[in-house]
Design goal:
- By secondary structure, this protein is α+β, with helices and mostly antiparallel strands.
- It contains 14 helices and 21 strands.
- Helix 7 crosses helix 14, helix 8 runs antiparallel to helix 11 and helix 11 runs antiparallel to helix 12.
- The relative contact order is 0.13.
- The mean pLDDT is about 95.
- Bound molecules: flavin-adenine dinucleotide (FAD).
- The site of flavin-adenine dinucleotide has 35 residues, from strand 3, helix 5 and strand 10.
- Keywords: FAD, Flavoprotein, Oxidoreductase.
- InterPro entries: FAD-bd_PCMH (IPR016166), FAD-bd_PCMH-like_sf (IPR036318), FAD-bd_PCMH_sub1 (IPR016167), FAD-bd_PCMH_sub2 (IPR016169), FAD-linked_Oxidoreductase (IPR050416), Oxid_FAD_bind_N (IPR006094).
Length: about 450
């Protein structure tokens, strides 16, 4: 620890905090308050060179460390008690190149800030549904979002990376290293910068559809019957849908976030008419708008800090059996304001990289996230009980519809079997890890082959 302190004394431009610092508690805080840990120190490097020097000192002195950016890992895994946190929140730059349709983005940029900057150039990129999530942390392990059916997941946007490796060296990731980064994230290094694809798009049709709150089960059934039928005909790639049940201003109801990502707004309006006909609507707040405006509304609705957890079930398809379970548990959802469940889909036809990625599966699948959170800790227990029984019943549905993989960022680490999750990609991750981080310096990365 002494050599780290000497290094920080010699590099006064690098901010850091120890448990004695007045801003320590604030800097440690993550999205889920009960998952906040007590690191030995938080260091906020400002350049790749800073990170390189830091990693060298940490590894030379056998000091355990973690990487933190947006702080939205639901299990607080960006920090470990007693370890040093490398806090990437100073890495916020966004450099846009409209000609090559690429951008270079800092390892700590927050999703909404990236969306805003891209919008100045009339460009977009897939991004998380919640705007306060770190973009790089989201993209590294999968990255599901409202634009994914058109442009792919977060992993599929990664064209290059500036990485600080296990030796503390700064390197432009070669194709082998990039393969691991696309799906296994920070297992081979700290990402100072990603080079990503971006896409020209100006206006979108976006907003929320709130269905009538009465007879929630029937509404969920009707909506999903229609969704299933429409998928058989083929949904347009430009149509992004995220269904959730929350405690909305009209009561506990099915809400569907709708994004039409194409300049053909007439076709978008026609799809909006279809989706709003799938069940009785209470409020249709979908309008021609921009992604920034849409994300700003989402930002104002999502709490900034919560207590609670997440339970996630992955299925191949929203079969009638799965929808039966959902429509049984939705009405039982506690009325606490922030509790919700939501559904991410990797739909048929979603574009993806054929090679150069270890992302676990390109077979269509669905992630049902059950989120028992609250700003009041005393309201969490009831919500957790509901989430557990909902989750258990989903796990008991037809095993043929349940894949061997799960979405690691939304799943607790305990009991995770990387070999089962990554299947044929597992040996690739292992080999790449052995090549770039044989001593497992990045022992706290989410993916551990
Ligand atoms: C409210 C909420 C909404 C979410 N919405 C979505 C969604 O719509 N779609 C989706 O797919 N996921 C979603 N997630 C999951 C989220 O994308 C992941 O948990 C993501 O890893 C969070 O990144 P972060 O930087 O905010 O979090 P952090 O906790 O700071 O980081 C999480 C992990 O990412 C790695 N990491 C982050 N930055 C770097 C870096 N620069 N270099 C190396 N490793 C790094 C580290 O291993 C770190 O432990 C959501 C999570 C929350 C809490």
């Amino acid at each position: 620890m002494d050599s780290l302190k000497d290094f920080l004394a010699e590099n006064s431009h690098i901010r850091f905090a120890t448990p004695e610092s007045p801003d320590f508690a604030d800097l440690c805080t993550v999205f889920v308050l009960n998952e906040t840990r007590n690191p030995s120190m938080i260091v906020r490097p400002r350049s790749a060179e800073d990170v390189g020097a830091l990693v060298s000192i940490l590894t030379a002195n056998d000091l355990s460390f973690t990487i933190r950016a947006g702080g939205h890992d639901m299990f607080g895994r960006c920090q470990v008690d007693g370890a040093v946190t490398i806090d990437m929140r100073e890495f916020t730059h966004v450099h846009v190149d409209t000609e090559s349709r690429t951008a270079r983005v800092g390892g700590g940029v927050i999703s909404i800030n990236l969306i805003k900057e891209l919008e100045r150039f009339k460009m977009v990129v897939p991004h998380p549904v919640t705007p306060t999530v770190g973009f790089v942390g989201w993209a590294l392990h999968g990255g599901y979002g409202m634009l994914s059916s058109k442009y792919g997941l977060g992993v599929d946007q990664i064209l290059g990376a500036t990485v600080i490796d296990a030796e503390g060296a700064i390197r432009e990731a070669d194709e082998t290293m990039l393969t691991a980064i696309r799906g296994a994230g920070g297992t081979v290094g700290v990402i100072a910068e990603l080079k990503i694809r971006i896409y020209p798009l100006d206006q979108v049709l976006a907003g929320a559809i709130l269905y009538q709150p009465n007879d929630l089960s029937v509404t969920i059934q009707k909506f999903n019957d229609q969704l299933r039928e429409s998928k058989k005909q083929g949904l347009p790639a430009a149509l992004g849908l995220y269904q959730l049940v929350n405690n909305s201003p009209v009561g506990k109801t099915l809400t569907v976030l709708f994004v039409w990502a194409s300049s053909d707004l007439d076709e978008g309006q026609s799809w909006l008419s279809k989706v709003t006909s799938w069940a009785s609507v209470a409020v249709n707040a979908v309008i021609p708008t921009t992604l920034t405006a849409f994300n700003e509304i989402a930002d104002s609705l999502v709490p900034k800090k919560v207590f609670g957890s997440i339970y996630t079930a992955t299925v191949y398809d929203l079969t009638p059996e799965v929808v039966d379970v959902i429509s049984k548990h939705a009405p039982l959802q506690p009325n606490s304001p922030d509790v919700m469940y939501g559904i991410h889909e990797f739909r048929a036809g979603t574009p993806y990289l054929e090679t150069g990625s270890v992302f676990y599966s390109h077979r269509p699948h669905v992630i049902i996230e059950i989120i028992p959170i609250s700003q009041s800790p005393e309201r969490v227990d009831e919500a957790v009980k509901w989430a557990q029984s909902f989750h258990l019943e989903l796990a008991q549905t037809d095993a043929v519809n349940i894949p061997p993989f799960c979405y690691i960022p939304l799943t607790p680490s305990r009991g995770l079997d990387m070999k089962t999750i990554y299947g044929t990609k597992y040996e690739d991750i292992k080999a790449i890890k052995k090549r770039y981080d044989p001593l497992n310096r990045f022992e706290n990365a989410l993916v551990q082959p």
